[in-house]
Fold this sequence. Notes:
Layout: H1 3-8, H2 10-26, H3 35-41, H4 52-55, H5 63-84, H6 86-110, H7 131-141, H8 147-168, H9 171-190, H10 203-226, H11 238-241, H12 248-255, H13 261-273, H14 277-283, H15 285-298, H16 302-322, H17 325-329, H18 339-361, H19 372-399, E1 404-405, H20 410-416, E2 435-436, H21 439-464, H22 475-486, E3 501-504, E4 510-517, E5 520-523, E6 528-529, H23 534-547, E7 551-557, H24 559-567, E8 571-582, H25 594-605, E9 609-613, H26 620-637, H27 649-652, E10 658-663, E11 669-680, E12 683-694, H28 702-716, E13 721-728, H29 740-755, H30 757-764, E14 770-778, H31 784-795, H32 801-815
Amino acid sequence: MNRSVLRSAPFCTALLLVMWLVGAASGTLRHGPGGGLAAAVGIGQWPQRWWTPLTSALYCPDLTGYVVATLAVVALVAPMERRIGTLRTAAVWLALQVVAVPLGVLVLASAPSVPGWWIPAPDGPTMVGPAPAAIGLALAGSAVLAPLWRRRLRLVLVVALVMLVLYAGRPVDLVAFVAGLAGLALGRLLRRGDPPAAGPPTRPEVRVQLALTVAACAVGPLVATLIARPSGPLAPLRYIVLALPPELADVNAACGDPELIDQCHTMLAQLRDATGLGSLLLSILPAALLLLAAEGLRRGRRFALRLAVVTNLALAGLGALAFDLVLRLDDSALPPEAPAETVSVVAAVAQPLLVAGLLLASRGSFPLVPALSRRRALWLLGAGAAAAAAVAYLVGGYVLRHQFDPAPTLGQLLADLPLRFLPIGYLDLFSPAFVPRGALAQVLHGWIGTAAWLALLTGIARSYFGDEPEQAGGDAARARRLLVEHGGDSLSYMLTWRGNSYWFSDDGRAVLAYRLISSVALTLGGPVGDPAARAAAMQGYSRYCLERGWTPCFYGITEPCADPLRDNGWGLVQVAEETVLPLPGLAFRGRRWQDVRTALNRASREGIEARWYRFSEAPPEIAAQVRTISDAWVVAKGLPEMGFTLGGLDELHDDEVRCLVAVDQDGRVHAVTSWLPVYRQGRVVGWTLDMMRRRPDGFNGVMELLIASAALRCQEEGAEFLSLSGAPLARRDAPPPSGLAHLLHRLGGTLEPMYGFRSLLAFKAKFQPEYRPLLLAYPDPAALPTICNAVTRAYLPRLTPAQGLRLLRQALRAAGPARRPPAPAGADPTAAGA
């Protein structure tokens, strides 16, 4: 743990230190306490010795238990300690350890007398470790969280506890479950006043809850498989969801009984097939289908709903057949064995049916279907992969028939073909007609079905991503009309750039430009249109995204635009600093304008002037030099040119964009800038600096010349301001000492040698601008990693692997101890593009 954890969570740190020191001193880290020590410190049958509830928390059964307990304490106790304080954390944990844990042991001691009870009573003292009380503490502390996080934390922990009890069924799992329930009850004491109102779950929350349930149904059998002797009523599902080959002991038992010779041959064939990776991948197919369906459910996909329902119904049917459910329910045929086995079988079959019913009851929360082209591609991929696999197996099997024992006929290969698509564990009902012997035959036999399924699963996963919204042909023109008529902020003209999608409010009074990247709908600035309709437009856009399983994210918005989002609980973080130069009364007089006046005077002496052009109408020799300067800048950097809010040559071809170049008496271009119009009520009220490029050997001060000339010219035309745009990942003031803003500040420092964001901001300070923060607004902190990925891909859409490696090397070099200081202010103001 780092120093911040040591300072902010002293109880968590002390608890872990004591646990590991006690384990090391007693020599119990590898195998846990035994003999007399276990009897002295472990929690046993009721009534308890007064100290064992505490001492049993400091020991774990083995090294794995110590590691799991440590992770649980760090993940659950440390955040809650920072939230509710050290004293209350210690008090709650001790209360749970002293009261709830013994209560769980009491339930363990008394419940085995209940018919059908599945968790055995411990046969000796139990080492529960600190994890059960840590789980109870997290559930207790959830009472002080915001409604969204309270609901999520409780959902995840309760589902995990129920999963462990039903699938693993160990005594410690029941103790943790009881501690969790006690924590929920104890949470009422931690609240100060009434809790924030929590309304009914929204549609996205319903999707998350159902997705988590389906994912638990896939992970639970895996947990039961990893545990040595699971006793949960749903543990038998591990044979269905994870269709693994038979165990060697079962094979030996079958082969040792002459009456089971056919079953012996089948199981031997299963073991032989299980040696390859392809067969192993196919054996986890049901779990993979459930996990893939869970991700689709989270995104609101109708196809994922159907996939989850069909998979669960299939699992229920297979379980009923594999466990002879009908025979077990027949009282006359029921063997005189413990009723817990029948209860377990019934539960294992009922659980998929219940999940399927729950999904069907909530089918209205999954309205999204992929575009027709994607649906066709999915079906073609699935059918094509299956057909190709069938042809390859039949042709390859017949060509390699002498590598099978016995050599199969074409008819036998055709009869065996459907079995190649089934997991190994499902083949015990079929006696193999032939088995592969040669290496090529084994590859063909083990990989054909796996390859077809992998192709289909890949197609399903692709249908979840990149489902671009359908755009009407006139959307871009319609958005431009709203921009000109009503206006927006200084970055709003960027909505006219290629690559944007558009969302219009129902009344058509506002529009938002966005880009859909990895399920993140990333806006380019705030809404454009009628100012009275903008706040409602942001709410409508957010609902539109959430209904489609997207994460809405407003990027580069101003403080006034962010205020309604802040009031609704959105998170905000500064991502750039915009510099605005007011034009009324501007005069480059006084000492603080010395650098600007020097650049203007030197340009006048050397015969360099600033000329305005529409790039499409610029003289060919000027346009050619602008292209050469821009291309040379990109090549010299050796890094990808950034996009999204940073324009380039493509954006210069818009006739509404003004191009200002510095040209000497010989017609040589020294630098170029581009300026985007800012509209309000149908007229241009300002201009925004976009592209900045300079010739490497151009005269010093050329950028000061161009910006000052632009300011004087626009002032004459009656413009109100110039925006020098924003410097990404740069800010004047120090960020908070922790959190996302701090991480972005460090990232800006790492990228400074490559892109010069901070140098650019320092250069713009020469013009005495007003500073306005540009913000990123997000609805859910859990989506921040995905949002960061989307922003990165938006700025670097054409990042090649070679450029990515070079960028990584330079970033690592810049982050090292020998990092060079940033370039001095104004040394290369084009380093960051714009």
